[in-house]
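Run: sequence + heme C -> complex structure.
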Amino acid sequence: MKWLTVILLGFFLAAEQGEFSHKTHAPLRLNCTSCHEGAESSDRAGFPKLAQCQTCHRDYAGQIPSQRIYQLPDFVFFSHAVHAKGKAPCGDCHGDVWRQQRIQLFRGVKMKDCVDCHKQRQATEGCTACHELGQ
Ligand code: HEC
Ligand code: HEC
Ligand code: HEC
Ligand code: HEC
Ligand code: HEC
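>> structure
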């Protein structure tokens, strides 16, 4: 019976089209970093490649949307790795994405949004932590 399940699952998953939703994938309990590779180790969390979707959706030919919800201007320093080390979980800034059909802005990315949390957690408020001197 096992092979039948595999073939059926392969058939249904292969037929998927349209846009990715975190909510639909919640029951799979995937790690964030299986798709956002740098989220704990680099500045950028990054987006998955199509090949990562195709491990489950063999023939998936949709697109990974490139529209951004969370985006800082270039003159601000930000690192995901630093925040992971500082023990700020993804949800502190992005909310519970597994409940989001489409990603919604949870915590803003204005200076006040950053500094409020830095105050609370005794992290730096020094201008040069987030901005280059002289800018
Ligand atoms: C199976 C792959 C996959 C997993 C696992 C996954 N994501 Fe995503 N994520 C995506 C894709 C694809 C996008 C781009 C489409 C979209 O915005 O929904 C995305 C977008 C996002 C965005 C929006 C970024 C922006 O600026 O638009 C955030 C935030 C995010 N994911 C957080 C998370 C967190 C936190 C987890 C774990 C709790 C997680 N993701 C797990 C695939 C995944
Ligand atoms: C670990 C396996 C796995 C991975 C990896 C995976 N999916 Fe899925 N996906 C599923 C399952 C299971 C479903 C639910 C099937 C159903 O209910 O029809 C699903 C459903 C979907 C759907 C159906 C539409 C919806 O949300 O209701 C789309 C579209 C989709 N996935 C796109 C993607 C994309 C894009 C990626 C890569 C960023 C991805 N999936 C990665 C297993 C996976
Ligand atoms: C302290 C707040 C904070 C935490 C914690 C955080 N993020 Fe982010 N995230 C941001 C900000 C701010 C951006 C926009 C960065 C930019 O534009 O340079 C972002 C952007 C993203 C993006 C868009 C792609 C990218 O790399 O810019 C994804 C995906 C993402 N985060 C996933 C995650 C995941 C997964 C975690 C947990 C492992 C996480 N984030 C933890 C604040 C946070
Ligand atoms: C949810 C709380 C939280 C939010 C929101 C947050 N941070 Fe942080 N941030 C921290 C913590 C905690 C640390 C300290 C990490 C450590 O020292 O291990 C930190 C450290 C940093 C550092 C490193 C500072 C140093 O000492 O060099 C920078 C840069 C930074 N954050 C930028 C930002 C920016 C930019 C934003 C807004 C887009 C932001 N942070 C939002 C909690 C937060
Ligand atoms: C924890 C990170 C963080 C710290 C600390 C920080 N900023 Fe910012 N700053 C930001 C972010 C994020 C933005 C971009 C979003 C915005 O305009 O609110 C910004 C924007 C700015 C801007 C441009 C505002 C505009 O409207 O164009 C100026 C000027 C600025 N910061 C000055 C400062 C000064 C001066 C300090 C020290 C007293 C400081 N910042 C400390 C994160 C930070």
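>> summary
Residues 2-130 form one domain. The mean pLDDT is 89.
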